[in-house]
Write a structure and sequence with these properties.
heterodimer, A: 114 residues, mainly beta, 6-stranded mixed β-sheet, 4-stranded antiparallel β-sheet, 0% helix, 53% strand, B: 114 residues, 11 strands, 57% strand, globular
Chain lengths: 114, 114
């Protein structure tokens, strides 16, 4: 079985500052990794995904994430945040040939202040 | 946005009553999923479907049942609701095009059981 740990439950950050959200995973097989964002009272929206190849993945809204196999991590970064980035962020993992099922971390709430 | 409609969007009911939540998709995707979202737990899979009349349990399936009589509809039923089932419920869908397919989410149903 696989599991996901998001190391920070809440991250306050000032507008235009950089942010990093940490995600570690555990799995006995190769995995696919995803970051989703949830704005208040909405469903989850895919930010980016790592499937294979380049370990640096770029997503929507200026976000990027780096896959580190040796550290089993998939941290999400943005160099300069906006007020509109205030949301909850979820890291998720799936394994091949498992009906595309996702295992989610507990989430990280990012609050951007002016 | 993926064509996923959840109904109702909000519901308040009493302990012991039956409750059915509906997920309707217009994408003709093979896979459909029901999750519940609770603070500190992220999203947890309740049940999922890999085709009409084909369903399987997720990690938190106790107290829930599902049915899928046609491709576009996936129903989640709480036979006798309990207060511990107060949560936000999300439906998701996925195409069957290979292991790299992400899930797409509906806007959620907020269920309160008093």
């Amino acid at each position: 079985a696989q599991s996901v740990t998001q190391l920070d439950s809440q991250v306050p950050v000032f507008e235009e500052a950089p942010v990093e959200l940490r995600c570690n995973y555990s799995s006995s097989v190769s995995v696919y990794l995803f970051w989703y964002v949830q704005y208040p009272n909405q469903g989850l929206q895919l930010l980016l995904k790592y499937l294979s190849g380049s370990t640096l993945v770029k997503g929507i809204n200026g976000f990027e994430a780096e896959f580190n196999k040796s550290q089993t991590s998939f941290h999400l970064r943005k160099p300069s945040v906006h007020i509109s980035d205030t949301a909850e962020y979820f890291c998720a993992v799936s394994v091949p040939r498992n009906d595309y099922k996702l295992s989610f971390g507990a989430g990280t709430t990012v609050t951007v202040r002016a | 946005d993926a064509g996923i409609t959840q109904s109702p969007r909000h519901k308040v009911t009493e302990t012991g009553t039956p409750v059915t939540l509906r997920c309707h998709q217009t994408e003709n995707h093979r896979y459909m999923y029901w999750y519940r979202q609770d603070p500190g737990h992220g999203l947890r899979l309740i049940h999922y479907s890999y085709g009409v009349k084909d369903t399987d349990k997720g990690e938190v399936s106790d107290g829930y049942s599902v049915s899928r009589s046609k491709t576009e509809d996936f129903l989640l039923t709480l036979e006798s609701a309990t207060s511990s089932q107060t949560s936000v419920y999300f439906c998701a869908i996925s195409e069957d095009l290979g292991d790299n397919q992400p899930q797409h989410f509906g806007d959620g149903t907020r269920l309160s059981i008093l």
